[in-house]
Specification:
The structure is a homodimer of 244-residue chains. Chain A is mainly α and 244 residues long. Chain A folds into 2 domains: 2-58 and 72-91, Winged helix-like DNA-binding domain superfamily/Winged helix DNA-binding domain (Arc Repressor Mutant, subunit A, Orthogonal Bundle); 104-155 and 162-211, no CATH class. Chain A is 50% helix and 2% strand. Chain A has helices spanning 2-11, 18-28, 37-49, 81-92, 104-114, 120-143, 171-211; strands spanning 53-55, 77-79. In chain A, strands 1-2 form a two-stranded antiparallel ribbon. In chain A, helix 2 (18-28) crosses helix 3 and helix 6 (120-143) runs antiparallel to helix 7. The longest helix of chain A has 41 residues, at 171-211. The radius of gyration of chain A is 24 Å and the shape is elongated. At the A-B interface, helix 1, helix 4, helix 5, helix 6 and helix 7 of A face helix 1, helix 4, helix 5, helix 6 and helix 7 of B. The structure holds a DNA duplex (30 and 30 nucleotides).
Chain lengths: 244, 244
DNA sequence: TCCCTGTGCTTACCGGGTAACCTCGTCCAT
DNA sequence: ATGGACGAGGTTACCCGGTAAGCACAGGGA
């Protein structure tokens, strides 16, 4: 739903056609999540079907020619009343976090831990390397804006970097992109911390199993410590109450 | 790919039929991510198509009746050699974190920050409430194992809790479920921290904008028409001066 | 002239995910 | 015994997110 809702939000600002939607979306997220043009159109058409969006009537016949420079021969879309309602409702409703999305890493480790013969430690170490790598990339991007886009999403897709920026107006877009990056950084840090945590738990469990004889891996003292060295990520000073 | 890979990993332990796959998957993730049976079968059939899995030949004719209690009339699946290779390769390869998955919340805030007339502070506050709520639920679950499942994933789906547990063997499943919960907790904490961070950044930005005169932060529209109307989003009264 | 590039758009296709449905076999009450 | 309820096991149709390939058209050089 994120794309769908995002498009509605963009259309709430002004009518646009498909390419513009894509451009705006990517500009404001710093190109972090490239948006396939096909998806834009199918999504918009679904929105039309659902009555949230309607095509702006083309000036085709008759009154086209007056004042407005409605020269574009392209189909533009705008919100209906229902669409506007959906937009405000989206802003008013938090993103649901209660039936969390499937996380491949969590699933993988859950299965690894319960599968005989899997080298869990190895899995964790390799994952940590990978996650640290991406974390480093993110922080580097943060320091060197690189004139954004590119970078992430390794897939080819011709680079466009160019001086497309409307000179002044989008300090706001820079802010947004910077916040998105922070989000990725915070997420990666949490993942690292979790990996450390898992490793510690496993070490403790296997140690106990060893010393206490075979007695079935006692089920988890409910709480524990979060050891990690707080990994110093520039600009990611943690604000609120620690992890625990 | 998480489900697909997970099924391969499960089948690496022993041949199973669809229902068993679902049970095992849910047991080891503590029911955090309920798996629709239809998805199991379509996924398994794709695996068969791709040569990673094959049905165990039914004991139909002839030699069925010897020693093995191969009494099940149901189709069971097992890995092929290619499947086993895929499994070990999955364990050996970290989950990619470089083209991060779309995160609805990050997208939403990026758009909120760049949209005129959106009450960003309100969005953040509501989200924080929601995320804190789920965080609380997670930690409560952690303290009170509740005999797991249920709880998350509000959708109906008859509860089954029962004493299905194979008495001893799955202290490991408890461990796995506990780790999954930790993962959710770490993620939620990171989200909270990020929300705080965003709020602080916005406060700082708006403060600077205020003291330094109007300077930057001009109108938004990089392209064409900017109907001065500023779109009257009904009910989206900007409570705070955070942005703009 | 021809070709390249960029804009705007369409289409076919795939995989994840859900819901509704079907078939058996077993158990139990009438 | 019969027939309903129920659970295990499985199939199907459908939707949505997402990708790739292609079409049409308009400048702008070499």
């Amino acid at each position: 739903m994120s794309v769908r809702n995002g498009l509605v939000a963009l259309l709430a600002e002004q009518p646009m056609h498909g390419y513009q939607l894509r451009q705006e979306f990517e500009r404001r997220t710093g190109g972090t999540w490239p948006l396939n043009i096909g998806q834009v159109y199918t999504t918009v058409h679904r929105l039309v079907r659902d009555g949230l969006v309607e095509p702006v009537p083309q000036g085709g016949t008759g009154s086209t020619d007056d004042a407005s420079e409605d020269d574009a021969p392209f189909e533009r879309f705008r919100l209906t009343d229902a669409g506007r309602a959906a937009a405000t409702s989206w802003w008013a409703t938090p993103v649901e976090r209660g039936a969390p999305a499937r996380d491949e890493l969590a699933i993988k480790l859950a299965l690894a831990v319960t599968s005989p013969g899997v080298d869990v430690r190895g899995v964790i170490q390799r994952q940590r390397t990978e996650t640290l790598r991406s974390l480093r990339d993110f922080t580097r991007l943060k320091v060197t804006p690189d004139h954004r886009r590119a970078a992430l999403a390794g897939g080819g897709q011709a680079g466009d970097v160019g001086p497309v920026d409307t000179p002044v107006a989008d300090a706001r877009a820079d802010l947004a992109w910077s916040l998105v990056l922070d989000s990725l950084i915070f997420g990666a840090e949490a993942e690292i911390r979790w990996l450390d945590h898992v490793e510690a738990r496993l070490a403790r469990a296997s140690h106990e199993a060893a010393t206490l004889g075979s007695a079935a891996v006692p089920a988890v003292p409910p709480t524990d410590a979060a050891p990690p060295g707080r990994l110093g990520v520039p600009g990611a000073a943690s604000a609120s109450g620690a992890d625990r």
